[in-house]
Amino acid sequence: MQSQLIAILLLLPITVIILLAGLHELRRYKSEGRANYGLAYDEKTGTTYVTGIAEDEEAFDPEDFDPSNYDELRAKKEEDADKG
After folding, report:
1. Radius of gyration (Cα) for the chain, nearest Å?
2. Predicted structure pTM score
3. pLDDT in tens, 55-78
4. 50, 54, 70, 84 — which has fewest CB within 10 A?
5. CA gap 84, 75 in Å, rounded
């Protein structure tokens, strides 16, 4: 019985989180309709993240991204030069 109790206690928070996320998405679906999710690119940090994409916008295509074009140090130097 002890091992079953430990397993239930470990799985309970995960189950609650999944159920709450499902309820949240169901409420969003009822109020806003179908959603289109995709990658978005943040130019300031050079990272991508998953978010809702408007129907008239295109999602970020990772195959078109060239990481050699992004240089964080150069961007910071240019930003500092613009400020002062």
Report:
1. 21
2. 0.49
3. 777 766 667 666 666 666 566 677
4. 84
5. 15
